[in-house]
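Hi V.,

You were right to ask for the full record rather than a summary. Here it is.
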Amino acid sequence: MTLSAWRPTEVEGVSERIAGVVLVDVERPGTTTEFRNLSAAELIEQAIRRDEGRLADSGALAVETGAHTGRSPRDKFVVRHGAMADEIWWGDVNQPMTPEAFATLHADILDYLARVDRFRVDLSVGADPAFNLGVRLITESAWSALFASNLLLPGTGAANDAEAWTILHAPRFQADPARHSTRTSTAIAIDFEWRRVLIAGTRYAGEIKKAMFTVLQGTLPAFDIATMHCSANEGRGGDTALFFGLSGTGKTTLSMDASRRLVGDDEHGWSERGIFNFEGGWYAKTIHLSATAEPEIFRASQQFGSVLENVVLDAKTR
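Predicted structure:
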């Protein structure tokens, strides 16, 4: 059970190549619509209308992720070609996919998304402006768009927009192992040459943020930047503390020291310029969450705009 909460250009070859796309921010009868950069309130309205989730009594949006309540590392692939082919340590963790299989999966997901309403959000990763990377998410799920807006940074509209990545997110699309060279009907595939991420067959939205972490892990070391799975905070004297650990081991809790400034709770880069967050929000476990032990996170779980994943609500009181 998790909580995602926020704290303080066109897609060439993607949106325009989806047959029947309507590039407006309102629905038209008889067509599919691509909603662009909706506000949190609008995304929540869409999620409820589409039966994707329910409002808790606090105003947070409660959703269920179905069979996948966590990441699916055995269903994650990287396309083996180009400059990265000799840089990646291939194996059970970094599983290769051929460019041909990726292209087939990409085309099929593109065709699928053309037949449903879509939500596009222009975001970015990397709080240091020198290393900020644009991210264009196109998803069939309103709550997933809200999740990504909470967890990633706002889009910058930078001049290097050609460097931006595109995520095609189709949680209801089922991959075909025989056709797409996947292990199951679930697939998370990354192409570093094409700057594309494909996510299919899983409603667990954490795949979105972790896919971009993989992208940064693959690209930033070339700029002498260490990519770190850790939380970070800063003392009044400018000293920085890093808290390393696997998911669920307390990184977010440890970083929330009221006497120190939070840098981020999960993913960071370390360059000659200093420590910088890759993201912009919190992603915390809710089990045993209390106002006493974790007051900031508890307050976030009680606010409009936050997302509660797989948190059981009382049917009557919410």
